[in-house]
Amino acid sequence: MSLLWRDRIAIGIEPGVVRFSRQRGGWRARPIEQEHIHCETGGSDDPWRQPAAALRQTLQRHSASRPVCRIVLSDQLVRYQLVPWSTQLQSPQDRLRLAQARFRAVYGDVANAWEVSLDAAGYGAATLACAADRDLLKELRELRAVAGIRVASIRTHLAAAFNCLRRELRAPEFWFALVERGHLWLGRFERGNWASASSYRLGQQPVAEVLESVEREAVLAGRQPRGMQVYLVAAGLDRDSLRALRDTGVSVIAAQTQGLVGSGIDADAAARK
Predict the structure, then answer these.
(1) Residues 6+ apart with CB under 8 A from 213
(2) Which pairing describes strands 30-38 and 68-73: parallel, antiparallel, or unpaired?
(3) Contact at 8 Å (CB) between 157 and 75?
């Protein structure tokens, strides 16, 4: 069967929740099912295990249609490091080994269980590295054997959102803020590459905390706190919070997001523009 005619399933995985959206295949794909599956995290050191188990059980119901699956991982399930440029790094393998060493230096031996990947970066620029639990990625890649699913892609929320919305980010230098429930990823982008990357927990005052985080990172970078454009993707803020952020000059470029799937962030649609 052609991939065009297979059902398409978009999946978002975050601690305690799996977000599931299925579209009927064909020339004019149309949504036919959406579901939010809530599960206990159980205080596990691996917050992805319960959502992954729930996902496997859900997908078994759809195995007959042999759907094509695209998976987005919450940034709460991955870790980031900015790997500095060095003329001593002669190959991608050298940069990968340095990234792995930096993760171990920050997180200890637990980082040995992570699979590390590197973003593309220009000559002389730092490289953004991402680490995810190797067992989680193995579980997702094995969905085809378990449920007859074709996994077309596994991406982080950051990668999915940034790549989809790249054309909206017109400032030559900017902060990119990605908000999930209780979590903020914040990066500085300049000269076509990432220049910083940080993660923060958000509490009961997300608007103030987002602004304080931007100011803190600006001071650390030797920049004026309000001297650069801030673009924000909001997956979990109410309308009052979004309005308050806009009033401060923050550009909210994806305001209707309700999670990792079915949120208006459609990377496939963006790629067709």
Answers:
(1) 177, 184, 186, 198, 200
(2) unpaired
(3) yes
Tell me, yes or no, whether 23 and 82 share the same domain.
no
The residues that bridge with 174 in the sheet, in sequence order, are: 189, 229
3-state secondary structure of 150: strand
Do 57 and 106 lie in a common domain?
A: no
Q: Between 49-59 and 134-141, two packed helices, what is the crossing angle to 10 degrees?
A: 0
CB atoms within 10 A of CB 44: 11
Would you mind telling me the total number of residues written for the chain in this entry? 273
In the block, tokens 């978002």 appear at 12
**Can you give the pTM of this predicted structure?**
0.86
pLDDT, position 40: 73
pLDDT score of 261:
54
CATH of the domain at 55: 3.30.420.60
Q: Which two tokens stand for residue 250?
A: 């923050």
Distances (CA, A) of 267 to 166, 194, 200, 207, 271: 10, 20, 25, 27, 6
**Residues in the chain with pLDDT values less than 70:** 1-6, 24-32, 41-45, 63-65, 146-147, 255-273
pLDDT of res. 114: 97
